[in-house]
Amino acid sequence: MMNGSSPIGVIGFGVMGSSMALNLAKSGLPVLGYSRTASKVTALEHSGITLSSPDEIAQLCGVVLLSVSDGPAVQEILFGAYGIAPKLARGALIIDTTTNAPSEALSFATKCSELGLDLLDAPVTGGDVGARNATLTIMCGGPEETFQRALPFLNRIGKRVVLMGPSGSGQMMKAVNQVAVGLSIVAMTEALLLAERRGLNSAQVLEILQGGAAGSWALSNYAPRLMSGDLKPGFDAAHMLKDLKIALKEAAGHCSLPGTETTTELFEQLVTLHKGVGNHALIKAYKN
Q1: Same domain, 179 and 160
Q2: 194-217 pLDDT, tens per residue?
Q3: Residues paired with residue 119 on neighbouring β-strands, in sequence order
Q4: 104-123 residue pLDDT tens
């Protein structure tokens, strides 16, 4: 259904979606983009991305990539107010990079299959840096055939692309990933807070932590932003809170995650106190 000149549709131009769309365009693909905030798309027109509508994307694109906020947003786009799924041609491929619950991903895939569409859940990790540099790790769930169809596109936005299992498995892996990320942010926050309160030089502290057993992605990527006072979201704290709640729901009845429960409570405090800040702003919850 696709050929070299067929456009790919991208819906959702937040921090991650914008960068993924740019990397698809840079690789030579014509990109039709839609965002509720049209200026996010028009700002990228010089890079080969054309502002479009959901209906036009459904009519013209055999491949659609979604990068929106959560499961209800995916539902709205595919089957709700926007309703692009019934408008897509049979055989079209939907790549959903949104983080949502495994049960939601399975439901979306089942509904799409009934319409003759292929859907791959493909949440990502690597933050805004990974999205810009096309070095994301992409965790996929769906049939092998669907994965193989999506792989040429995913390889343009990520460095490591893995099929974890059937539909919903990519989202399950993302929940596991977010447990590790959330706790690493807590570790970073508490270490830097203790160092600050006991009068150590923050630059030296960071250098030592990064160079030893304590080193982590959070320390390398988030700590410098935090120390410079930059709390803008590479990944919004509200999204992390949503992801942690998904992880706790998936753990229920299977295992106890007391560290994740505490981390979720801390992010709940942060999001209540401060809107539009990144994960690394968690120290605000401690200081308040």
Answers
A1: no
A2: 999 999 999 999 999 999 999 999
A3: 94
A4: 999 999 999 999 999 999 99
Structure tokens, 261: 């429960």
Number of C-beta neighbours around residue 15 at 10 A: 19
Q: Which two tokens stand for residue 125?
A: 């990790």
Look-up of token digits 């991903």: 105
Q: Is 216 helix (H, G, I), strand (E, B) or coil?
A: coil
Name the domain count of the chain: 2
Q: What's the N-to-C CA distance of the chain in angstroms?
A: 55
Phi and psi (nearest 5°) for 164? Answer: -90, -20
Closest Cα partner for 57 from 77, 72, 42? 77
Active site residue 174: yes
Inside any domain, residue 2: no
Tell me the pTM.
0.93
CATH code of the domain in which 133 resides:
3.40.50.720
Q: Residues, the chain, total?
A: 288
Find, among 72, 70, 116, the residue nearest to 94 by Cα. Answer: 116
Helix (H, G, I), strand (E, B) or coil at 2: coil
Catalytic residue among 40, 174, 232, 242: 174
Is 1 part of a structural domain of the chain? Answer: no
The parent domain of residue 113 ranges over: 8-165
